[in-house]
Amino acid sequence: MLMSSVVMAALFTAAPAPKSQPLTWKVTGTDVTFEMSSKDLRALRGGKEVFGLQSRKKEFLASVTEGVDATRDTSDWEASQSFTVLSVVGPYVSYEESNGGYTGGAHPYASRIYVTRDVTRGKDAFNLLDLFPEKDVLKALKADGYVRKFMGDPKAFEAAKTVEALLQGLEAGEDCVGFEYGLDNVKRSVAFHHVEGDKVAVRISFGYAAEMCRGNMYVVGVLLPIPASLKPALERARTRQEGFLMKDAKSVKAPSIQFDWEGHAPDKP
């Protein structure tokens, strides 16, 4: 009887703890498969990674050490880069990217911005204005209370016929919002937050207008009519069948990762 108890205890002790499996899903109508864990998000096509977070570490380290002579004193240098996944809708991955540190020069650097990638296409291929009619985006921006705070000439603001013209007419204000550089932000620095009836709430991030505001990020929220072409993917993301929306990012434990680097004393001759 005692031996049986010992054997049973040994069996229970030896049983390995179950490993958490990454959440996987295939994007309808494509050859893309996503794998998401607490430490990474990967998109695969034919078994080959076309998007990933952890795989960026090598590129990050190369970017901060490129051209730095080993004999140079970099002991007061440091750098970090982080990625936080915000939403995944169809093949569109949105995440917040932060960069900061000091690698020489007069002052440190810092930036935060949203980034959206179409994993079926090139790095900068995603364009919000390809998915939504520009007139709808323009109308939503004009109606936003935060955006209206920064209008320069009210008549020019109302008369603007394009998103670019609207942004060019906005002033940075005390908040130091980088609207004038923001056309690319409207195109690519977005995330899909939630669905309200036949509209989707889109978050658009803008950077800073002057160096004294480095590290600041400003987010504008707009409601856009859902185009027919995007409706199925948004519905699957809303119900978490394929991907998820920004409002559910914490619930699904969307990954957030950070890479760090520190300098060193110069090598002795």
Task: Give an overview of the whole structure.
- The chain is an alpha+beta fold and 269 residues long.
- The protein contains nine helices and eleven strands.
- The strands form three sheets. It has a four-stranded antiparallel beta sheet, with no helix packed on it. The protein has a four-stranded antiparallel beta sheet with strand order 7-6-5-11. A three-stranded antiparallel beta sheet has the order 8-9-10.
- A hairpin with a 2-residue loop joins strand 8 and strand 9.
- The protein is flat and about 65 Å long.
Largest sheet: 4 strands, antiparallel
- The assembly state of the depicted protein chains is single chain
Order of helices and strands: HEEEEHEEEHHHHHHEEEHE
Strand content: 25-35%
Spatial shape: flat
Number of helices: 9
Order of adjacent strands in the largest pleated sheet? 1-2-3-4
Structural class by SSE content: alpha+beta
Radius of gyration over alpha carbons? 23 Å
- Poorly predicted regions: 1-14
Keywords:
269 residues; alpha+beta; four-stranded antiparallel sheet; 11 strands; 25% helix; 31% strand; flat; disordered N terminus
Concise summary:
The chain is of the alpha+beta class and 269 residues long. The protein contains nine helices and eleven strands.
